[in-house]
Structures are given as structure tokens and as C-alpha cells.
Specification:
Shape: rod-shaped
Oligomer: single chain
Strand order of the largest sheet: 6-8-9-11-10
Number of strands: 11
Number of helices: 9
Radius of gyration: 40 Å
Length: about 400
């Protein structure tokens, strides 16, 4: 199967996506580790704070008390409060109170009613329905303080603003990196596609230009043969093929520029293109046309649409290896007209339903794999329609479907 060009393109995209994903994961892990380390440091600071509180109650010298109070006063960022086993709050530090007016100290008894309810609600929300002993054993934000004589108090602390902000940072970083990766990917794809379009258009126009000279020469030779009395049937057939070459050259010249779109009738366009193909495919391929009763109107470039039908017909004949049946059906659904091309060939695997339209994809030993790519470009970019594999089964055949906008017939 000759799909090396497409495989290389797909592999490069997959590598780019994989590298980006690995980078995102690595940065996320590093950020998470930093968050865990900072959380551990805050836990250790609170343990030291608890130990200092215990030592103050046991201290005998003024220097010891001053040292312990210095440790406690150094906490200017971590919200912390002390309470008894019934959740009665005695002191607090660094909580963002709703009412700060006239508040100079951290003693709970000096709080206003609004602030008191605020602190109690935060403590109760963190505790839930559990006892304080259970929280000390299971929740790292609750720490027990033991005083001389067996009296106990409990510390409850929350993450500092710095820790909360940093804990969100990895997810913001991940979203930003994903967006940047998508932007870079789309930019690369767009640039590559624009380059391919320029090459495609240049190659098409150059092909049309190169065909011009031999076509003119063949026309002159046809006239010469007619003038010398060559069998009229032979010269007529030669003339048909020369005119066909002229049509092909005209089609190539239209690639890369906006073709002239005109009102036409769907059945007439499809039938005309098949008439030419019927005499040029294997006699063992039976072509059947199933046109709708009404000949629906469409806005199309007839030369390009006939090219589409010829490409699909050739593709189907190749898939059947010159033996089988080809059914072309037309119809309409509300504001859409459609064409279905069904063959009895070898079929397409479901995973390749979209792949078959990519440049370079082909199952033939010879060929560039550009036929269906050209068809997709003509239908979608020039006619605003869509083409897709409607259904396919390996060993039984494939159905391609083209959908175009329906246009009311001109009166």
C-alpha cells in the first residue's frame, strides 16, 4: 500500500503532539511538587507555632516567653486560630475578616458579632460533623496543643494566599501551554497548507500551459488528416480526444483561481460527464445512472464538476480492478442536492474514511494519490459543499456522497 507520504505527515504531527503533551505533563509535575513542598513547609511552621504556644504556658523565664512570642508573631501569612474541643475560638491570626474597622488585636472576645460569626462558620465548615479528636488524627490542618496539667487546645489553620495561588498555577500553566501548542500547531498546518496550495496551483497552471502547444499541434494534424481524405470516423474520434485534452487543460488552468460558478442542472452535469467515461472504461464494468425525477438546480463550475465525476468514476473502476458495477444516484433533501457513487470494489477500512482524501494516500502501485484530494478541494473550496465516504465494507464496495446547496430553477 503506497501511503508513505501521508504516513510521514501523520507521524510528524503525532510526534509534535506527543512532545507537547510530555512538556505539559513535566511542567505540571514540577509545579505540583512545588505546591506539595510549600504545603509541607506550612505544616511544619504550624507545628512549630503549636510547640511555641505550649512552651509559653510552661516557660519560667521572661527570655523564654519573649522568644516563643517572637516565633508566633512571625506568622503573617497563614490564617490560624485556636479553639477548645467544643470549637470555641479563643485567638486567631491572618483571617480576612469582613469587618476590620476598630479591630486592633487578635483576641476573639474583642471581635464584632459579624466577624465572630464569620470565623465560626469557617471553622464549622472545615470540621463538619466530626469530633475534634477525629480531625486531629485525620486532617493535617488540625493540630493538638497539650498544656501542663492535661489541658488541651487545638489549632486550625488554612493554606496561605500564596499556597492557594500557586496550587492553581499548574492548571493555568497547563491551559496556557495547551492553547499555545494548538496555536503553534495550527500555524504550522496553515503555513504548510498555504505552501501546498501555492505549489498545487503553480503546478496546475504550468501543466495547462505545457499542454497548450501539443494540443494546438494535434488540432492542426487533425485538420490535415481530414483534408487528405483519412477515414472520417477516425478523424472524428481523434478530434474528440483532442477536444478532451483542451477541456483537461482548461480544468488545470482553473486551479488556484476562483472558477466561474453558474446555474446548472444536476442530472445534466452528471449525465454528460458519464457519457464520456462509459466508452473509456472496461466493458466488464456496468455503469448505471439513477437520476431523480426532478432535475434540481445547482450553482457549479461545469468543467470542474465533470472532473469530479470522472475522478470518482476512475477511482471506482480501479477499486473494482476493471470488473463490477458502478451506480450513480442523484437526489435532494430539503435545501441540499446529493450525488452518490457506489461501486462493488474492495472497499475501505473505516479508519481510513477521512484518510483517503489526504494527499499521497493511494492503494495503487502507481499514482500520486491526488485524485480524491482534488475532488475534495473542488467540492469544498470552490462549491461550498462536502464529500465523504457514506459507507464501505471490505470486499463489497464503497459509496461516496457529494452534497451541494440546492438552488431554485431560474424562470
Amino acid at each position: 500500500m503506497k501511503i508513505s507520504l501521508y504516513d510521514r505527515q501523520r507521524s510528524s504531527r503525532m510526534i509534535m503532539i506527543a512532545v507537547s503533551a510530555i512538556a505539559v505533563i513535566v511542567f505540571l509535575l514540577i509545579s505540583n511538587n512545588l505546591v506539595k513542598e510549600l504545603a509541607q513547609q506550612e505544616r511544619e511552621r504550624m507545628n512549630i507555632w503549636a510547640q511555641a504556644t505550649e512552651r509559653i504556658a510552661e516557660a519560667e523565664m521572661a527570655s523564654d516567653i519573649e522568644f516563643m512570642l517572637g516565633i508566633i508573631s512571625q506568622n503573617n501569612s497563614i490564617p490560624v486560630l485556636t479553639c477548645d474541643r467544643d470549637y470555641n475560638i479563643s485567638e486567631f491570626r491572618n483571617f480576612p475578616l469582613p469587618d476590620r474597622e476598630g479591630l486592633d488585636k487578635s483576641l476573639y472576645i474583642e471581635l464584632g458579632e459579624k466577624n465572630r460569626r464569620y470565623l465560626e462558620s469557617r471553622l464549622r465548615k472545615a470540621a463538619g460533623e466530626r469530633s475534634i479528636e477525629e480531625l486531629v488524627a485525620t486532617n493535617p490542618h488540625f493540630i493538638e496543643i497539650k498544656y501542663t496539667g492535661g489541658e488541651k487546645q487545638y489549632i486550625y489553620y488554612e493554606d496561605s494566599n500564596l499556597l492557594r495561588n500557586i496550587s492553581i498555577y499548574p492548571y493555568i500553566q497547563m491551559i496556557v501551554m495547551i492553547i499555545l501548542t494548538m496555536i503553534i500547531y495550527m500555524a504550522v498546518v496553515y503555513t504548510k497548507r498555504a505552501e501546498q496550495n501555492r505549489v498545487w496551483a503553480g503546478l496546475s497552471k504550468e501543466t495547462a500551459h505545457q499542454l497548450g502547444t501539443p494540443i494546438s499541434s494535434l488540432m492542426a494534424w487533425t485538420e490535415y488528416l481530414q483534408a487528405t481524405g483519412t477515414d472520417k470516423e477516425i478523424t472524428e474520434e481523434i478530434d474528440k480526444d483532442v477536444k478532451r485534452l483542451s477541456v483537461i487543460a482548461d480544468r488545470f488552468s482553473k486551479i488556484g483561481s476562483q472558477p466561474e460558478i453558474e446555474f446548472d442542472y444536476l442530472n445534466d452535469v452528471v449525465s454528460h460527464s458519464l457519457e464520456y467515461m462509459k466508452s473509456r472504461v472496461s466493458g466488464r464494468v456496468r455503469i448505471e445512472m439513477h437520476t431523480s425525477e426532478d432535475d434540481y438546480g445547482v450553482n457549479v463550475s461545469r468543467p470542474l464538476m465533470e472532473w469530479v465525476m470522472e475522478n470518482l468514476t476512475k477511482n471506482a473502476v480501479d477499486a473494482m480492478q476493471g470488473v463490477g458495477e458502478l451506480h450513480i444516484t442523484t437526489g435532494a433533501d430539503r435545501g441540499t442536492v446529493w450525488i452518490e457513487v457506489r461501486d462493488t470494489g474492495k472497499g475501505i477500512a473505516k479508519k481510513n474514511f477521512k484518510t483517503v482524501f489526504n494527499p499521497g494516500y493511494t492503494t495503487k502501485k502507481r499514482g500520486w494519490g491526488l485524485g480524491l484530494t482534488l475532488v475534495k478541494r473542488i467540492i469544498e473550496e470552490y462549491h461550498g459543499g462536502k464529500i465523504f465516504v457514506k459507507e464501505s465494507e471490505l470486499g463489497k464496495g464503497t459509496t461516496f456522497r457529494i452534497e451541494l446547496k440546492r438552488v431554485a430553477a431560474k424562470k
